[in-house]
Amino acid sequence: MASKLTMPKLSDTMTLGVLLKWLKKEGEKVDAGEVIAEAESDKATMELEAFDAGILLKIVVPEGGKVPVGGLLAIIGEKGEDIAALLSEKAPAPEPESVPESTQPLPAAPVPDMTPADEIITTDSVRIKASPLARKMAAAKGIDLRRVQGSGTGGRIISRDLAAMPSAAEVPAKQAPAAAPAAVSSEQPLNTMRTAIASRMTLSKTTVPHFYLTMEIDMDKMVALRAEMNAAQTEIKISFNDLIVKAVAAALSKHPRVNGSFAGDKFIFHQQVDIGLAVALEDGLITPVLRDCAARSVGELAKEARVLIDKAKERKLTPNEYTGSTFTISNLGMFDIEEFSAIINPPEAAILAVGAIQEKPVVQNGQIVVGQRMKVTLSCDHRIVDGATGALFLKDFKNYLENPALLLL
Amino acid sequence: MPEITFREALNQAMAEEMERDPNVFLMGEEVGYYQGAYKVSQGLLEKFGPQRVIDTPIAELGFAGLGVGAAQVGLRPIIEFMTWNFSLLALDQIVNNAAKLRYMSGGQIKMPIVFRGANGSAHQLGAQHSQSMEAWLCHIPGLIVMAPSVPADGKGMLKAAIRDDNPVIFIESEVAYGYKGEVPEGEHIVPIGVGDIKRPGKDVTIVAWSKMVHVALEAANILAGEGIEAEVVDPRTLRPLDEQLLVSSVEKTNRCVIVEEGWPYAGVGAEIAHRIYINAFDHLDAPILRVTSEDVPMPYAANLEHAVVPNAQRVAAAAKKVLYV
Prior knowledge:
The complex is a heterodimer. Chain A is an alpha+beta fold. Chain A is built from 9 helices and 18 strands. By secondary structure, chain B is an alpha/beta fold. Chain B folds into 2 domains: 180 residues, Thiamin diphosphate (ThDP)-binding fold, Pyr/PP domains (Rossmann fold, 3-Layer(aba) Sandwich), CATH 3.40.50.970; 127 residues, Rossmann fold. Helix content of chain B is 36%, strand content 18%. Chain B starts with a strand and ends with a helix. The chains are: A alpha+beta, B alpha/beta. Chains A and B meet through helix 2 of A and loops of B.
C-alpha cells in the first residue's frame, strides 16, 4: 500500500516549507527512517525521513518548491502500484498563522476560507498559483488567495474556486469575532502624495531614533496678548499658531542643533530658521514653509502663513514653497487634542507637536484659579539632539510664550 | 439565398469584379483553357477573353512579377497560385516588391494586387505540397492576409481584396472548394480586418480560420454534447487582425484555444495568443492552448497524415483542458 510523504510542521510558526533537495531519485529504494530530502521551515533547514520503506514512486514537488504544512511531497510504495488516487487527493490549504487566542480568537467553523486577514500579507512572500482571472476576482471580493484551495492544474486557483465564495464584504459580521479586525473590503491604490507620506514616515520612524519631551505651558499672557493684538487692528487676524511660530523661531535661534540636521558623518547647522507648518488636506498633508521666521514680525508671518495655507488647501503650492524647512510644527489643537507626538520630517532634527489650549484649575499664589494651559511635545532625533539639548530648547520656548515681551527684544 | 460551393462563390466574386472594373484580370497556371486546376475560374475565359484570363507557363516568380508590374501601372491583377506551396518561388516578388513598393515610394505607387490559391494539406499530397503558408506571409508588413472559411465569406472577402489598393494574400483551401453554403447574390462585401463569430458560446473561445473553422465547429458540437458551449471565432483576416473581436470573446469566456493548420513554431496562433495575453490577461482563467499540426514535414502515409493535422477530438480535448474538466 503506497503512502504519502507530506511536509511536516517543523516549527510552531511554520505554515509553509521549502523542499530544498531530494536525496533520493524516483524509482530508488528507501528504508523506513532514512533521510530522503531536506526541507526549510521559516526558521531552519531540517531533514525529512521516510516513515515507510519502499520505492520512491513519485516526486510531486521539485526542488525549491514551496508547500504548505501537510502538502504532498512524494509517494512511497511498491513498484508498479497505482498511485493515481493518492495523487489526485487534494492537499490541505496552508493553516492560518497562529495567534495568541486571548487577543485574536480565530473565527468559528462556518467560514474556514474567510479568516479575516490578521496580519500584513506581502504577496511576494508566498508564491500563489492563481489564474489572472482568479486574482482579479479575489481582489474584487477581498478574498485572501492564501486561504483558497486551487482545483486547477498543479493546484492553480481558478475562477470556479472563487465563484462560490462570498466576498469579504458579504461575510456576515456576526460570523467574525468582535475582536477581529474587519476583513479587507476594498482597495485604493496610493496616489503620489500617499506614497510619499508612506515612504517618508516609514523612513523616519524606522531610521531616525526618536525621543519625546512633553511640557505644559502657561498661555494666560499669550491669550491676553492675542486678544489685544486682534482688538487693536483689523488688518490681519493673529492666530495662536502665528505666536507659536514666532516663539519657536526665537528659541531655535538660540539652539542651533534643534535647527540643524544629522548628516551621517557631520551635523549641519542652518543659518536661517525656516519653519514648516503641517497642513491637513482632504487625503493627506503638506508642510508649506515660512522662511526666515526669526527675522520677521508676527504680523508678517501671519500674513504669509494665511497665503501659504490657502494655497496648500487648493494644492497650488510650488515645490520651493513646501520643501527645505529646518523645523516643523504640527498643531492639532483645533481638534481638541490635548497632546500627541509627531514623526520627525527628515532631515530635520525635531518636530513640535502642539495640543489645544485648555482652561484648567491651576495653583497661583496658594489659590486655585482658572488658567490657560497648553501641552507641547518635542520629537527629537537623538543623533543630533540630546535630551538636555531638547529640554533647554523647550524651556526657552516656554519662556517666550509665558513672557511674550521677550519676543520684542 | 442560393446555396453554392466555395469555388462557385470565388468564381462569382472574380466575375463580378471583372465586370465592374475592366482593369481587373486573372493570371496563373491553367486558369484559362483548363478552367482552373480546381475549377475556380470556370467560364471566365469564355466570358472575358484571353486578354483578361491569362494562362502562364510554370514560372511563379515570372508571372507574380508581371502582376506586380501591372499593378504599379494601374491594373488590378489577380494572381492565382495553383497552391501556395508553389508561391515559395514567387516570394521575392511578393515580399520584396509587392509588400514594399507602396511604402518605399512614399505612397506614390499603389499595389492593387491579389495573390490567391489553395493552402494547406489535402489528402496524401506529400511533404512539399501540404504546407500551410499563412505564417510566412503574415510575417511581412505591407501585406494583407485573408483566409475565408465559408463560401459567403469567400465571395465577400475576395471582392474586398480585389478592390483594395494594397497587396492581398488570399488563402483558400483545396478541401474546402467543394464546401457548400448560402451566398448572397450580387454585391456582398466582407471588409478587410473584420472577424466573425461562427458559433456563439460562453464557456471557451476557439479561434480558427480557413478550413480549421470547420474542425473547430465540429469540436464545438462534441463539446455541446458534454454541456460545454464553445464560441468559435473566425478572424477571417489574419493581418490586420480583428483584435477587438478576439478580446471581447475571451473577456466573456475567460478561456481560449487557437486552432491552426500550420506548424506550431512561430505560427499565426502564437501572435494571436500574445495579443490576447496583452489585452485580456486579467480575464484569463487558464493558459491559452494552441492546437496545430505536428512539428514535422507532412508524412505521406494516410494514417500518419491524419495524426499530424488538427482534428475535432484534439480541439475538444484542449478546450476541456482550459476548462479544467
